[in-house]
Amino acid sequence: MQSRIRCGLLDRSIFRVSIIIDKGNELCYIVISSAAAALDLLRLEAKLANETWCMSASTATVRSSSIDLRLGCIHGKTFKKPRRPYEKERLDAELKLVGEYGLRCKRELWRVQYALSRIRNAARELLTLDEKNPRRIFEGEALLRRMNRYGLLGEGQNKLDYVLALTVENFLERRLQTLVFKSGMAKSIHHARVLIRQRHIRVGRQVVNIPSFMVRVDSAKHIDFSLTSPFGGGRPGRVKRKNQKAAAKKAAGGDGDEDDEE
Amino acid sequence: MTSIVQSPNLEILAREPEGFSIWKGPPFNNGQPAIKLERVSCTVARFSDNGSRLMVTKNNSVISVYDGYSSNEIRSFEIPSLLGAALSPCGTYLQTFQKSTNPQDKNVVLWEIHSGASVYQHFQKNMTKATWPSIQFSSDESVACRLATNEIQFFDSKDFSKGFIYKLRLPGVAAIELSKAPGSYIAAFLPESKGIPASIQIFSSNKDAQTQPIARRSFFRCSTVTMHWNKLSSGLLVVAQSDVDKTNQSYYGESKLNYLTTDGSHEGLVSLRKEGPVHDVQWSYSGLEFAVVYGFMPAKATIFDKKGNPSLELGQGPYNTVRFNPKGRVVCLAGFGNLPGDMAFWDYKEKKLLGTTKAECSVTSEWSPDGRYFMTATTAPRLQIDNGIKIFHHDGSLYFKKMFNKLYQADWKPETPESFSDIDELVTSVNTIKIGDNEKKAQGSKSTETSKIPASIAQKPAAYRPPHAKNADSVKAELFGGIAPATEISKNALRNKKRREKQKEKKAAESGIRLF
Q: Name one Pfam family in it (chain B) (predicted).
């Protein structure tokens, strides 16, 4: 049955609305996030199999919903500095990873380590719960689905214990920079970073400018040169066009043009 | 009343130091092949692609062209300082390359065999494996083209005297591959130059549709390329090889497999699940699927459908070659060259292993055109001893073996697979596999022994469990009273346990027997 949710109550403009439905507990989580240029009113149609929803136009929610209204002030830390600053083995290991994956600074590595540690903590905490706990099932499945989707866990590894065995290298392998290099589209890992930053690479139809973009498993096939890039069939770049114009002028014109070039 | 269509006979060409001879193919009466053509001395002998003509280079710069069916000499050409020769696919034309001294001397000549006259000649400085034959034909000879510097020239294949009728300008093109059947597309490879990546572009062979490439794929890190068109000209497989491995995993360089379709549905890398070089890639004879053998040894073999999705995994093993059966149900995975020669025959429609066997030191391998026999040959410049021919049935059982003192070449005479009927034994044998699996295993004890060995090689080694992990389990058992470990034994651990117990029993039984 089709339902409509009209969200006009909030004072911020809405960019994206995600609806997560937990049928067992009859909970509906609606997460609304904002962005600078967005739509004013978003009318969503949520298709539900066997549920009936009654909405009132003025209220923007379903019962037991939680909306994240802290739009615009969500701003947390993404990395953690190491406890001991001058530990030789840690410095060597980090430098090796930075060099192997072409990272810009240690912070990029610490960012990945922090993300990994948060995921491991979540998995560890879920493992202490009872096996049949609905929260463990729901969140465990969601966590494993995300790990599978991003290619961090293989096909047969669908238990929370495998999440605890993840390493930083698994995450670093899924960055767009390493995948562009590994697929043969760049001469070296640093060349890959340059190509990405200079907008030559697209994933699917979207040009991606971010070297740390985590590539999903089903998007990994669609990494290619972008259509407007000179490598992917577009017109030549600015410098080449300028040189071609100068060469054409020199071939056609006379001595007056030579002063211009110098 | 149905008329019985006579399917053509199979023939085998075997070339030795003294010359070549043609045998009347399998099935052999009395276990020995009947000789169709007695030994004729020669240096090169090759059939045309459809088997209608046979070109023989004799050692005094004479090329003879024989008729494929009657083995009679049709025409002979006298060509001094000959370096190479090739027949066109239907056997209408013969290209020859002569050594030339000055650019005025046109040293690549195209002869028409029927009349014996030369129809076209041009100058080519030197000949490499990638650029010979200079003039490429499609399978039905409707399209003919040639790679010249910075352009591709197309000819009218009925009338070469006009010269080239149109050309496609591609600055920097290094290699081309015309699609064979039908000849409607041409793939061009432009290598990497200053900052621009190497690229493969597919164009149409029509003059009017040649402004834009139909498909293109660019990549870096590539020095040579091999291109494989499929039978319907709908897909192109490109193996891009480089001499230096920038990922520092191999001394021998790296190779990547790209797949381009002419309808634009797929333009990119084929996702291979194991790292390592691509050893072999082959299209099936129907053109709807392809098989790839890839990865560091033991290599993985997978069959992909025409969308580039994997349809069947054939496991891991010491393989580096794959050969599709022309009648299209069986595929042979083999490890020739520097590998010991294991061969596995799979039925990929039914997803069953038909048989495994070994053919040591083979150099070439080929299915017969009717798909019933598989011939492997050990030939001379590569291996100087143990030269010979072995012919196997489609399920791996040895049918015929003959050793030679020195053998240079052993080929089937090419025929179209459609002119042969389907393999009845294959259909019935697959049915018996389904019904009577156990009795077939009992009969072929040797084949099961050999099939067990590749299986055990392919099996992953059991995971390493450090000592403290074992202690943790036992500690847990003490804490929880011994309930926990009983419930949580993984499948591998259970299997290992069963196997250990069985071995213990066997040893106890043996020692018991010895006592007596």
A: eIF2A
Across the interface, whether the CB atoms of B218 and A185 are under 8 A apart is answered: yes
Token pair recorded at residue B68: 């494929």
Q: Are the C-beta atoms of A208 and A177 separated by less than 8 Å?
A: no
**Interchain contact, B240 vs A191, CB within 8 Å:** no
Q: Residue A40 above 60 pLDDT?
A: no
pLDDT in the model for residue B237: 95
Q: How many other CB atoms are found less than 10 A from the CB of residue B360?
A: 13
Categorize the per-residue pLDDT at B480 as very low, low, confident or very high, splitting at 50, 70 and 90.
low
Question: Poorest-confidence range of A57-71, B309-323, B341-355, B441-455?
Answer: B441-455
In this prediction, residue B248 carries a pLDDT of 87
The complex scores an ipTM of: 0.74
B21 pLDDT tier (thresholds 50, 70, 90): confident
Q: For residue A183, give how far its alpha carbon lies from the nearest alpha carbon of chain B (Å).
A: 7
Three-state DSSP state, A140: helix
- The verdict on whether omega for the bond into residue B182 sits within 30 degrees of 0, i.e. cis, is yes
CB of B82 within 8 Å of a chain A CB? The answer is no
**What is the distance in angstroms between the CA of the first residue and the CA of the last residue of chain A?**
72
- What's the pTM? 0.74
Which residues make Cβ contacts (< 8 Å) with residue B198, sequence separation at least 6? B189, B190, B191, B192, B218, B219, B220, B222, B225, B240
**Is residue B197 less than 8 Å (CB to CB) from chain A?**
yes
Q: How far apart are CA A198 and CA A220, in angstroms?
A: 20
